[in-house]
Amino acid sequence: MGLLSSDPVKETQKEVKKDHKAEEKELKEHAKEVKKAEKEEEKREKKEEKAEKKQEKIEKKEEKLAEKHRDAAHDANEHSLERERAAEGAEAHKAGFNQAAAGHHGAATGPTV
């Protein structure tokens, strides 16, 4: 009985075991790859959420700055109008004073009889 005379059932069982083992190994590798891909997807999602939150913060800051800018422009406009009114009032007062002074001087230097 030589080396080539082996039991065909045992040979088939060996082959089946070998194939089964190879398939299990392949399944484990695929499971690892899937797990790795899931982790990478989670990381991407977290980064995306973080970026969205950052963008929201930036937008809120921009809104606040725009509001402050509008308020400052409004205040500057109000101050400018107040200065104009004050200058007009001062000019009117000065004109009235000059008119009164001219009238007073005119009466003193008027025609003598």
From TrEMBL:
Bias-annotated ranges (Basic and acidic residues): 8-94
User: Where is the stretch described as Disordered?
Assistant: 1-113
Ranges of Low complexity composition bias in the record: 100-113
Q: What is this protein called?
A: Uncharacterized protein
Q: Which organism does this sequence originate in?
A: Dioszegia hungarica
